[in-house]
Specification:
The structure holds 2 protein chains of 2 kinds. By secondary structure, chain A is an alpha+beta fold. Chain A has 2 domains: 76 residues, Beta-grasp domain (Ubiquitin-like (UB roll), Roll); 69 residues, DNA polymerase, domain 1 (Orthogonal Bundle). In chain A, strands 2-1-5-3-4 form a 5-stranded mixed β-sheet, with helices on both faces. Chain B contains 11 helices and 14 strands. In chain B, the strands form 4 sheets. Chain B has a 5-stranded antiparallel β-sheet with strand order 4-5-10-6-7. Chain B has a 4-stranded antiparallel β-sheet with strand order 11-12-13-14. In chain B, strands 1-3-2 form a 3-stranded parallel β-sheet, covered by helices on one side. Chain B is globular, with a radius of gyration of 19 Å. Chain B starts with a strand and ends in a 6-residue tail after the last helix. The chains are: A alpha+beta, B alpha+beta. Chains A and B meet through strand 4 and helix 3 of A and helix 2 and helix 6 of B. Bound molecules: flavin-adenine dinucleotide and FE2/S2 (inorganic) cluster (2 copies).
Chain lengths: 159, 288
């Protein structure tokens, strides 16, 4: 199987990797670039644990081929903290104990950030709807929703 | 698997026509990748359509309708004010597909060509009398959307043929459309039944109508008898019960874990009436 040379920008850094055309973007992030934050929960687009931004669009990286990322900008959970400073969403997830096993957390953080970028002042239903593509088997969602609403409030205050 | 990235439809068609094994076109990939991962379909040649110029555009046609590119996502449709104003039923059907993540990728042409009888965007397109522009080794042709599915997972497209755009007619005055589906949850599920109604009013009477039903037969149905049931009426109680009866009579559902055939026949009658009422109001009619 011939591999394809792919160049892309991941979290602002230029990267290159060799991808088997059957490999997903998620496989490439994890196995070729060592970015293991994004998780594979299902591999079928149902759980959202693999959520990343591809050219500013929230996608399941398990439903994108690595070769499709040629020339694209990819943002993952690893790009959320600035240096040693956590993103407000990350801080609020810790404060509200919005995670237990943490497997869903990277995807939820990326999806929540995309939601707040579009809508800085969401209602509770808008948060629940915006995160409907992200499954969590542990928390029952309530703490996640509270953490996102609290982070949104703090981020609005900071502006 | 060979991954191709053509820059014209003619080139995409030529690659597909020359391919000997399993071929798939790649639009949003939300069906193709699931099937690839599950091992149900491993294409020998995968032809990515997203690098053909114009495929991400929604453009007005000379006739006053819309031409939708084959890489336009559900989210793109939802953001397009003109299209949402003209064809809310088409847009709401596509917007039901998957989550925000899936909406960022999934396309109308992919939903149509995947060939599911439960495809949520297809009843709305059929009711709207949408057409598709097809490119193939023999050149271009235009087909009605309802003529594309051939049965579960199959289309009438010949080897080397692909859809280059979806074309919606001019909305015109006093028209409205709507799509509703029944699922046991509130989102992220496959339609147990789907119903789309598109109509035009003359005064308070229905002057033109098209009714399409999903998930009640091996392919999505255009049901002229259901449209006839409301023609010339102000969508009153007797018209609605005739509409429900016609939809139930046209349904040929199966029993599966999502619902029994009996349940589907009943629900299709209820949904089609609700969709007709919404379409009627969107066309400017009073609430019925
Ligand atoms: C989590 C999840 C939830 C989903 N929920 C729903 C739902 O609620 N309702 C629903 O209807 N579907 C649902 N789907 C299925 C899927 O998202 C839709 O069918 C989607 O519209 C497919 O579009 P795509 O662009 O991703 O297609 P792709 O996967 O790119 O292609 C699908 C098929 O169409 C063919 N094709 C694509 N473009 C063309 C073209 N231009 N010409 C000819 N053939 C073409 C391909 O060869 C392939 O066979 C869901 C999928 C996932 C993963
Ligand atoms: S791993 Fe991608 S959605 Fe579950
Ligand atoms: S914290 Fe375990 S899946 Fe969400």
């Amino acid at each position: 199987m011939t591999k394809t040379h792919v160049t892309a920008t991941v979290n602002g850094d230029p990267v290159e990797f060799l991808a088997d055309p059957r490999e997903t973007l998620l496989d490439c992030l994890r196995d070729h670039l060592g970015l293991t934050g994004s998780k594979e929960g299902c591999g079928t687009g149902d759980c959202g644990a693999c959520s990343v931004l591809l050219d500013d669009v929230l996608v399941c990286s398990c439903l994108v081929l690595g070769v499709e990322a040629q020339g694209a900008r990819v943002e993952t959970v690893e790009g959320m903290a600035q240096g040693g400073t956590l993103h407000p969403l990350q801080r609020k997830f810790i404060e509200h104990a919005a995670l237990q096993c943490g497997f869903c957390t990277p995807g939820i953080l990326v999806a929540a950030k995309a939601l707040l970028d579009r809508n800085p002042d969401p209602t509770e239903s808008e948060v629940r709807f915006g995160l409907a593509g992200n499954l969590c088997r542990c928390t029952g969602y309530d703490k996640i929703v509270r953490a996102v609403l609290d982070a949104a409030a703090e981020m609005r205050g900071a502006q | 698997m060979n991954y191709h990235r053509p820059t014209s439809f003619e080139q995409a068609s030529a690659i597909a026509a020359a391919a000997a094994g399993v071929t798939r076109f790649l639009a949003g990939g939300t069906d193709v990748l699931v099937q690839l991962r599950a091992g149900t379909v491993t294409p020998d040649d995968l032809i990515d359509l997203k690098h053909i110029p114009g495929v991400k555009e929604i453009a007005p046609t000379a006739e006053g309708g819309w031409r939708i590119g084959v890489a336009v996502s559900g989210a793109d449709l939802g953001r397009h004010a003109g299209l949402c104003a003209d064809w809310p039923g088409v847009v709401e059907g596509m917007r039901l597909v998957g989550s925000i993540q899936v909406q960022g990728r999934a396309t109308l042409a992919g939903n149509l060509c995947n060939g599911s009888a439960a495809a949520d965007s297809v009843p709305g397109l059929v009711a709207a009398a949408a057409r598709v522009s097809v490119v193939g080794p023999q050149g271009r042709r235009e087909l009605a959307v309802e003529d594309i599915p051939a049965g579960p997972g199959r289309t009438v497209l010949a080897p080397g043929e692909l859809i280059a755009a979806i074309i919606l007619p001019a909305r015109g005055a006093r028209g409205g459309d709507a799509y509703l589906r029944f699922i046991p949850r509130t989102e992220m599920d496959i339609a147990v039944v789907g119903a789309a109604v598109n109509l035009r009013l003359d005064g308070d009477r229905v002057a033109e109508a098209r009714v399409a039903l999903g998930a009640v037969a091996p392919r999505i149905l255009l049901v002229p008898e259901a449209a006839d049931a409301i023609l010339g009426t102000p969508l009153d109680a007797s018209a609605l019960s005739a509409l429900a009866a016609a939809a139930t009579a046209a349904a040929r559902p199966i029993t599966d874990r999502r619902g029994t055939a009996e349940f589907r026949r009943e629900v299709v009658g209820v949904l089609v009436c609700r969709a007709a009422r919404i379409a009627y109001q969107r066309a400017g009619g009073a609430a019925t």
